[in-house]
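In this notation, each integer encodes one residue's backbone shape. One such record reads:

___
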Amino acid sequence: MGIIGWILMGLLAGIIAKFLMPGKDPGGCIVTPLIGIVGGLLGGWLGKVIFGVDSIDGFFEISTWIAAIVGSLIILAVWRLVARARD
């Protein structure tokens, strides 16, 4: 998957994560895809470490999307904790 695919998936996974975990978040159109991209990488790594599977197979694979969304939810939760601690 190319860089454009990662950015598009990150944007969509970040939006889905924010939809699944509603609330006030600092950041906007820049932070959402970054959360999604980092979340996709985290989800893929966790899938490999915990389950021993390659969860980042391709753009249209369901395992890729699940890993990206779960990772994005984790990153979003950490982001909220860090942002709340700064306030």
